[in-house]
Write a structure and sequence with these properties.
This protein is mainly alpha-helical and 169 residues long. The chain is built from eight helices and two strands. It has one domain.
């Protein structure tokens, strides 16, 4: 039974790992909030957010391959948006295939969903990869996150290993 598939790299030593769980939580959620509230056409801002994620990942010594493979969990959701939205979103046509028209606004929506979701998920992966789970829960409690949330998260963390073991058997 392996118990390191969630926080495999949380025991590394790096400048990011040494930071208090509260500081990392607030900083990474600030990046997420800033990213989510940024207008879709602010390309430079998304480059800055992605650059921040890359810098934090490099400083944390969490392998980029690990970060990228974990971030791919959002690809099915992005694919659903990419399949439907460009064709159904009204606006100026970007190109046309017979009776199917792909609008520029639809492509902008796909870009927006992809950029925001990948940056946000990468921030969450970095948070969980650089903080031991017990420290993260303790930090969330000190930030006055509702006890219900921390309890449910703790139970989920505890029992996910049992579910994985049963699935592997």
């Amino acid at each position: 039974m392996k118990h390191d598939f969630i926080d495999r790299y949380s025991k590394l030593e790096s400048p990011v790992h040494e930071r208090d769980a509260r500081a990392k939580t607030v900083a990474l959620f600030a990046v997420i909030v800033a990213c989510v509230t940024t207008p879709p056409r602010a390309w430079y801002a998304f480059c800055i957010y992605a650059g921040m994620v890359v810098i934090i990942a490099a400083a944390s010594r969490v392998p980029f391959r690990y970060l990228l493979t974990r971030a791919m969990v959002v690809l099915p959701f992005i694919a659903v948006v990419a399949v439907f939205v460009p064709f159904m979103h009204p606006g100026v046509p970007a190109f046309q295939w017979g009776w199917l028209t792909v609008s520029r606004d639809g492509l902008l929506v796909v870009w927006n969903v992809a950029a925001k979701s990948l940056i946000s998920v990468s921030c969450l992966i970095l948070l969980t990869s650089t903080t031991r789970f017990t420290d993260l829960m303790r930090g969330l409690e000190r930030l006055h996150v509702p006890r219900f949330f921390t309890l449910v998260s703790s139970f989920m963390y505890r029992y996910i290993f049992i579910i994985v073991d049963e699935a592997e058997a």
